[in-house]
Structure formats: C-alpha cells, structure tokens
Amino acid sequence: MCAEAIVEGSENGKRMVDERDLRKYLEKWDKTYWPTFKVLDVLQRVFYRSNPAREAFVEMCADEYVQKMTFDSYSYKRVAPGNPLQGLKLAVNTIGSLVRANALKKEMDKLSVATNTLERVAPLTHAVGNVLKRVFVIGFSIVISVEEVKCIEGPQLMQYGFRGAIAKVGLYKFLSDLFWIGMFYHLYNQVATNTLERVAPLTHAVGNVLKRVFVIGFSIVVFGNRISTQTGIGTIIAIVGVAIYSLIRQT
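Structure tokens predicted for Sugar phosphate transporter domain-containing protein:
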C-alpha cells in the first residue's frame, strides 16, 4: 500500500491497518488501473515483437493521463472506469501508431530511393522530392485522424471545442492560435520525419521520451505548473532509462 492509503486506512495513525483495509485498497486500485494493464498486456502479446512497437507505446505519452514510464519506454495511461470509449481510443491510438511506424518507414525508404535519383538530376528537384515526402506523411495522417475524430468526438468537438473556444477568446484569436499550432506541429513533424530517416525506430522512440520529459520540465520552470509525485517519479525513471540506454549503445 502507498503511504497515503496507509494513513487513510489507519485513520491518521489511530489504529493498525488490517487485511480488510488492504482488500479495500486493492479493489480500488484494480477498479481504477486494471483496464489499462489488461489492454496493454493484450497489445504487448500481439504487437510487441519488433522495435517499432515501442514507438506505439511511447506515443501514449502525449495523453494527459500518463501514469508512469519505465526503462523499456513503456507508457501506462489511465483508462477511465466505466468508459469503454476511452479504452477503445487507447487501443486505436496504440495500434495506429504501430502501423504508422512500420508503414511510414517502408514508404520513406521507397521515397528515399526516388529522392536519391532526383538528387542526381538537380538540387531543386531534390528539394521538391523532400516536400512531397512531407505532404505524403501529413496527408496520410489527416485521412486517418479526421475520420477517427468525427466518429468518436464529432458532436462534442463542435460544441465544446470550436464554439466554446471562440466564445472564450474570440474568432480572430482562435483562428490565429489554430494557425500557429498547426505551423509548429508541421515543423515538428518535419524534424521527426527527418530523424526517423536516420535512426532506428527504437532510438526514435527514446527521443520522443526525452522530448516529453523536456516539455514537462519546461512547463514547470517557465509556467510554474505543478506535477504529481507519480508524474515526477515517472519522469525520473524515463531520464535514467534513456541515460542507461545511451551508455549501452556507446559500449
């Protein structure tokens, strides 16, 4: 049991924690976290047979419900109890990231061959080939993502997303923020795609972990955001894990 559960069960130290308190704690823990581990166990048995699978698990770090990260670059995300759509979104997110990593790597290899051929023709043609690769990646992602968003969050997205945001900050501010978010995300995708061309998917996954750790640290230092003890421990584990991985790769 964690320290908070012991204090609660003992009524602030007034009595000893017994088996009944332990059972109550375990039942509460299972109700909250068991769906997560159940989904991840199935996904691990089916998909965790190649390095690109690690990328799929690391992608889940983007969700706000990240619980912890381990040395293997796993990410465990809380699934809301009694909400099957949340579990479905977790599975779709993981499987989609896995498929994207494998498919994108193959297509990029094909495009690299074509681009190398174009490079011998003219530098301008080579630059056009690089732009075409970005367009392919972005278009492929939009086709998959838009349909998923429409099916799962369509009505709520319009009511609470667009209308709520416009009413809060105004149409001009909303559109300008949306433009710059898209621009910076596009630039991030360019960097990520260039990186994936040069490294293995596992190394790319470790880089994603470092990126998210940096974002967490930056938000704490600059914006003063508070993090939970669990998030802090997970961040430390991620940093230590990446450091160990880097040392192993060097030896």
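The longest strand covers residues 66-69.
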